[in-house]
Amino acid sequence: MKNSIDYYIKVPAKDIHFWCPFFEAFEGMLVLRTPNPPEGEIGILHISVSPDFKEQFEGEVKKHGLEFTNI
What does the domain layout of the chain look like in residue ranges? Predict the structure, then answer.
């Protein structure tokens, strides 16, 4: 996605099957990847967000109690 903002979010590995379709439902807002298979209890989602949706996306992440991380 051109001119996108990259985010990395930690999620419980057992819940990746929930969070991937949840974020993919925001069509046109973001592109989702899972860069590596989860190791242990934590998985990482790599999400590239259109700058037009930055505030809305960050609001959704905070609303659902998810945590940003750096890779």
Answer: 5-68
SS3 letters across 9-61: EEEEHHHHHHHHHHHHCCCCCEEEECCCCCECCEEEEEEEECHHHHHHHHHHH
> Is residue 37 scored above 80 in pLDDT?
no
Tokens representing 71 are 């890779």
- Judged on CB neighbours under 10 Å (0-12, 13-18, 19+), 67 is exposed
The fold of 5-68 is Alpha-Beta Plaits (3.30.70)
Report phi then psi at 43, rounded to 5.
Answer: -120, 160
Give pLDDT, residue 1: 52
pTM summary value: 0.85
Question: Is residue 48 predicted with pLDDT exceeding 70?
Answer: yes
